[in-house]
Amino acid sequence: MTGTGALIRLALRRDRVLLPLWVLLLGFLPVGTVSTYEGLYPDAASRTTLNASSGDNPSIAVIYGKAFDLTTPGGFTAWRYGVFLALFLGLVAAFTVTRHTRAEEDSGRLELLGSAVVGRYAALTAAVAVAAGTSAVVGAVQAVTLIGAGLPAAGSLTFGAGMAGAGLAFTAVAAVTAQLTEYSRSANGLAGGVLGVAFLLRAVGDSSPGASWLSWLSPLSWTQLARPFAGERPWVLFIPLVAAVVVGTGGYLLLPRRDLGAGLLPMRPGPPTAPPSLRGPLGLAWRLQRGALIGWTVAMAVIGAVFGSIADGIGGLVGDSEQVRGIFERMGGAQGIVDTYLALIGSVFGMVVAVYAVLVALRLRTEETGGRAEPVLAAGVGRTAWMGAHLVFALLGSALLLTVAGLGAGLAHGLRAGDLGTQLGHAVGGAIAQLPAVWVVAGVAALLFGLLPTLSAAGSWAVVGVVVGIGLFGPALNAGQAVLDVSPFTHVPKVPGPAVSAAPLVWLTAIGVFTAAAGLAAFRRRDVG
Questions:
Q1: Can you give the pTM of this predicted structure?
Q2: What is d(CA 89, CA 168) in angstroms, rounded to the nearest whole number?
Q3: Which residue among 265, 288, 309 closes a domain?
Q4: Which of 134-138, 202-206, 401-405, 406-410 has the lowest mean pLDDT?
Q5: Is 166 in contact with 244 (CB distance < 8 Å)?
Q6: In the 8-state DSSP scheme, what is residue 267?
Q7: Do 305 and 317 form a contact (C-beta atoms < 8 A)?
């Protein structure tokens, strides 16, 4: 463990911008729901109606999880944010561990540090400490702010502790995945796969009474199963602690069984000669991006089918509340609640695909800092061709993912509703309409890479966090239009909807292309590395 303290300080120094942004976003988000809930459901009758219409609705449970008590602001907050905040915090924790372990091995920095007076377990321990500490701080901020808003202390502490526990669980998962593969992208992919399985287990368990035991297997359910503000069960909070200790111990046991820079999973050796496709930058970009694109395509097909299959039952969330209907209209259009839902999930697909677009754009920075871009650019490949080849996958790959998600949602909903032709077009149209907004996010990431490369990762993820936060929670929190307009997804026409204007799509496309082109121009004029 020698040198652990120094590596913790180094990690905090490197993440001094990114981690505080996530703490602020995830920590202060739940408290904004308290006053909003009281405005939407001011009396006991409206709250009882909400509880009856949404509490036992299996379609709603797929998205938000089990609702134990929606008659109080605290119970509504725990139901509305329990799953998604745990999901985002799990991603933050997993990526933090990978960034300070496997990514450091990829770059060669960990080998340099290891040659000094640094113990073999120091880097893993430092990464786990930073990720676990971030999770704990997020949970503490949530608990303190909810208590400050007047909610019961017991429920607030249970909610915050449950969130921190979810972060600890996925910190341990990342500690294991970082030992399995040779590359940080693969480690993050495995951790993301575990998150996806956890979401599916929770969705099936929460929506199927006969399979409710599956929810207990998902870390994303443990916060809600602790029942904050609904007759707390503090003993459930020991589950993430035990899971984190057991799984995390596995990571420590696996670490000495591999060489530095290697993974435990065997890597397939490459061919003795390069194929003709690698003669150009586009072929190289395809070789580097194809694994992620294939994995994301499968994931978006599954996500689309899951969300499309519950479209018929979504009307139960609204009930008799005109205020909640207004929220849905602000989030996704106004032509029927099912069309509203299809427009809403189209926006969700767009925000998810924006994450993929940023990952593709940031691969440019990974290649540059890893020393692999300079030899390529020193030969006959120009900077514009090299960067443009990767941006092709950020732009066209996003189009493919949105199309697949729309097809999955349209097929699942159309077959259940008996109107495949109409619903398939509605779902695909709603998904494809998000493409210009995704291009804006990708263009900003490209601009940051070209103009401010050292801040490209933190800046790009900050943009994603703001966009996703506004899109998912802004309307429900009654955020002002000026705040909502910050997100490009706010300006996308609601498809399906009564009237679709092409002007916003043209403007968003122009902004995305302009920012990407500006990033290309800036990259041509700066030093590599």
A1: 0.79
A2: 9
A3: 265
A4: 202-206
A5: no
A6: P
A7: no
Query: How does the average pLDDT of the chain come out, rounded?
Result: 85
Question: Over the stretch 388-439, which tens digit does the pLDDT of each residue have?
Answer: 999 999 999 999 999 999 998 888 888 877 777 777 888 888 899 999 999 9
Check whether residue 476 and residue 355 sit in a common domain. Answer: yes
Whether residue 287 is contained in a domain is answered as yes
* CB proximity list for 145: less than 8 A, separation 6 or greater: 27, 28, 30, 31
231: left (phi over 0), alpha (psi -120 to 50) or beta: left
Q: Could you identify the residue written with the tokens 């399979």? A: 211
Strand intervals (E) in 25-175 = none
Tell me the backbone φ, ψ of residue 447, rounded to 5 degrees: -65, -40
Domain check: are 101 and 3 in the same one?
A: yes
Same domain for 283 and 214: no
Nearest C-alpha neighbor of 319 from the set 10, 522, 19, 47? 47
What is the DSSP secondary structure assignment for residue 1, as one 8-state letter? Answer: -
Based on the fold, state whether residues 292 and 230 are members of the same structural domain. Answer: no
**Residue 271 forms part of a structural domain:** no
* Six token digits for residue 8: 């913790």
The token pair at 411 is: 């097929």
Q: 289 with 254, same domain?
A: no
Task: Identify whether 40 is part of a domain.
Answer: yes
Helices (H) and strands (E) in the chain, counts: 23, 0
Range of the domain at 69: 1-265
Choose among 164, 136, 134, 158: nearest CA to 146.
158
Longest dimension (CA), the chain: 73
In 3D space, the residue among 463, 409, 457, 456 whose CA is nearest the CA of residue 432 turns out to be 409
- Number of domains, the chain: 2
Full 3-state SS string of 379-417: CCCCHHHHHHHHHHHHHHHHHHHHHHHHHHHHHHHHHHH
First to last CA, the chain: 32
**Residue 170 shares a structural domain with residue 297:** no
Q: What is the pLDDT of residues 209-245, one digit of tens each?
A: 788 888 899 999 999 899 999 889 999 999 999 999 9
Asked if the structure places residue 270 within a domain, the reply is no
Q: Which residues lie below 8 Å from residue 259, measured CB to CB, with a gap of 6+?
A: none
- Number of Cβ within a 10 Å radius of residue 295: 15
Structure token digits, residue 248: 């995390």
> ω into residue 266 within 30 of 0, thus cis?
no
Dihedral sign of CA atoms 343, 346, 347, 348 in order: positive
- Section 449-469 average pLDDT: 88
